[in-house]
Amino acid sequence: MKASLLFSRSRWLWALSLILMASSIPAVRAATGIITSPHDTRQYAAFTLPNRLKVLLVSDPKTDKAAAALELLAGSGADPGARPGLAHFTEHMLFLGTEKYPEPDAFQNFIAQHAGGHNAYTGFEQTNYHFQVDKDHLRQALDRFGQFFIAPTFTGAYVDRERSAVDAEFHAKKKEDAWRGQAVMRQIMNPGHRLSRFRVGNLETLSDQPENPIREDLLAFYRRYYSANLMALVILGKEPLPVLEQWARGIFSAVPDFDARAPRITAPLFSADRLPVRVVAKPVKERRELRLSFPVPPLREHYKTKPLYYIAHLLGHEGKGSLLSQLKARGWANGLSAGADDDHRDSARFTVSIDLTEQGLERRDDATALVFQAIRLITSQGVRRWVFQELIDLTRMDFLFQEEVPPEDYASTLANLLHQYPTREVLSGALTVQDYDEALIRKYLAELTPDNVLIQVTDPDAEPDASWSRTPRFEAPYRAEPIAPALLRRWRSEPISAALALPAPNPFIPQDLTVKPVTDSQEKPRSILQTPGLQLWFHQDPDYPMPRANFYFSIRSPVANDTPEHAVRTDLLVEMTKDQLAEFSYPASIAGLEYEIYGHSRGISVRIEGYRDRQERLLAGILDALRNPKFDKERFSIIKEALTRELRNTKKQIPYRRSIAELYDLLIQPRWTPDEMLSALGPVTLADLNAFRSELFRRISLVALSHGNLQASDALAMGERLTRHLLRDAEPVRVPRAGLVRLAPGVSYLRRIAPQHPDNATALYFQGEKRGPQALAEMALLGQILEGPFFNRLRTEQQLGYIVSASDHPLLEVPGLLLLIQSPRADPAILTERMEKFLADYRAVLAAMPAEEFQRHKAALVARILAREENLGARTGRYWREIDQGLETFDSREREATAARAITPARIRAVYGKWLTGARRRHLAIQAWGGKPPEEDEARKEKTAGKPTAGSGEAIVPIRDIQRFKRGLGVFPETTEGSISILPNHAAKR
């Protein structure tokens, strides 16, 4: 996996080098002392308030959203020993009322009514609060937000209720393998290090204790750590910097300064006698993994060299001769990632994670040996100045041509970075690679030894016995075992395999980074090439003046998804092609040129995104792999097994996700269930796949979109290459879109499932009568209005679960509304009844809604519909969806916004009564019954299906056979009168 300087796969990269490339790239600039890209038109200012609260302001006159974030330099690492989860609980409580705005939903309702969103997270060293709101309401939102840190109430009634929400969050995570893996690691860590503690919290840890009521502990924690001197604030708005500064000073100067001290940890992450050690754990899902973790010295002070980034770049490379390439050649692995983990002020870890095959799990000692050989190869030959210079050039290029991200994400990240880097480098420091320091790189390489490693083996076939242990609370089974001295000696000194090699210079680094002048005056895509087999759309977009472009194309075939047998072959073809392309395409991804290939209901699509230069070279390689595959029998077996495992794991999804997937299985036609796909996958051979590939490409049509900073001649060259490679021997054919099942009015359909998870869930879906902008806008407005009250009633007040939502849910341009709850306590029938009761009760609230409140909701909806697309990819995605819909006017947003503006209170009340509570509503309930097979206790569940109290007179019709259910109902007719669907072309993927 490509190393990232933020150690994630996020593509909003910031990088800076003071060593200039020998090219036409302009130099970085410094404004108000902060280093910025010359292409960044926003203005920045930073200062510290008298109470020592750090502030960064971002003025962006073109934004249509405002945002703010505040990060506290204290997180779960500050939990008192007797109160695990207290920092997390405090984060929850700050949203539930302040002295100035005492209502528990005051902040949430204001944000929702002004086209915004909000969230927070508790990390080990920090707690981060953030929100986004319509650009004209930042001042009022800041006033409400600031009160979190000035005068929260910690109202006793909500303390009692909200700890149930924290407990529900814990139960939702309890069967997630990532959280269970962390729980296992905590058992190996030094118990004197705070990372070894439980951090989420639950009813046990947050209960009232004889001498310590939980509310008193909350107040004590808040007074100890929620101090201005530990806070960093970011405000982003359309206003000039002086106005933003006035608001920041006027509101946040009132945050008290308690002269707090952030927790510091002197204990080592692992005790000296604990490593090396190997731990075997049994996962919930069927997955096999080998993970090597090495404790290393703290990294923060070395941000200009980033030694672990350099090491991860080489160790995580996927090109020819790489560690992953050799693991795959031996049949041991499907994927690999490397990078820093637990990167904190006082400690850090470097981790290598390998996605193992069945054979790889059996040969895990040999796979581990190959990892240590690769590390020794880097140590002996890989610390090279030219490699580091390549990273300088690449990261600097990405910094200079960085794309924007949503304001809330930007503010949240910058608030975090203010605590990590000097203010001058807050934009560039996270990805600054400046100083080549060979000695420092070698110092960190010296930590990556067999004597300093925790090896975690994830084995789904392990059979725990009396020798195994279970982690507290998460109850994850594991066994810790010493590593034999002979094995350690082998890993230290085994000769390096001659097949391992360091990467060559990257051939995909763009040379032409000029921004092409705009020569096409069209404001929307236009068709520039139409043949019997290909339609090519093109738009030179002046709104994103950077040397980037996106090229999407879809290969539509009538046999790609018409049967489950063909659907699994399409998936296999996609995965085999990606596997074949891995060594070729990986250098492109490092150079900022990504591709994605995926199967969907009409065929196979490819997306190429990134720097314009070298795109045609990448396209040529992809097309060659599609038309001239070199599929290996061993790799076919491995990929088939991985797909089999993925399909089996769907039953172990968290209940609310499983419920949504079930909704798609029920309503999209054609679409095949995991069981149907598994049955079809079993007998498939490589010969079958090759025969199917020929059949698929025999009758196809192509549609393509070229969008960004390029000219029509560039797009035509790509289109001509598609024609040469794919249409030479193909017969053109029209392939219709997938259909959406049209539910019968006046029937309450009920589907019960049994996820392998202890939580319950219910999803209630309400379907509109027809497609079209008006119907979509009306259902979207209902979702906008119901979102806050539904959450407040069923989560904040009734505490039914942590995952509670109400939102519009259009499928294939058919309007819909989805109510969703996952609960560790209430069964699905109770959840259904509570949802129905809410809908019945809310009729009166809607009828009495003041005109001003209704107008706020309507304005918020229009703002959401017409939200500015921050980057090229977001706009390309919208164009692509509209092409898939056949909406060649590219005005779906404008049409839906126009329809939304025309909605009256009387009309929304009528729609509510007809679609959500009327006797003729179209309605489907999916109930996930906490891991119990549906046939168990069937009589009880028939009695407690959940009475449809809102839709009186409905017949409850259980769905036991999905395909039979679909055959008994028609689908909505095709139409080009649509809007943005929740399912882009690829999301209909199985």
TrEMBL record:
Single GO term (MF): metalloendopeptidase activity
Location of the region described as Disordered in the Swiss-Prot/TrEMBL record: 929-959
Signal peptide: 1-30
SUPFAM superfamilies: LuxS/MPP-like metallohydrolase (SSF63411)
Domain Peptidase M16 middle/third: residue ranges: 399-680
Classification via InterPro entries: Metalloenz_LuxS/M16, Pept_M16_N, Peptidase_M16, Peptidase_M16_C, Peptidase_M16_M, PqqF-like_C_4
Domain spans labelled Coenzyme PQQ synthesis protein F-like C-terminal lobe: 781-880
Gene3D superfamilies: Metalloenzyme, LuxS/M16 peptidase-like
Keywords: Hydrolase, Metal-binding, Metalloprotease, Protease, Signal, Zinc
Cofactor(s), names only, from the UniProt record: Zn(2+)
Domain Peptidase M16 C-terminal: 215-392
EC number: 3.4.24.55
Any one Gene Ontology BP term: proteolysis
Function (record text): Endopeptidase that degrades small peptides of less than 7 kDa, such as glucagon and insulin.
Similarity annotation: Belongs to the peptidase M16 family.
Name of this protein: Protease 3
Species the sequence originates in: Candidatus Kentrum sp. DK
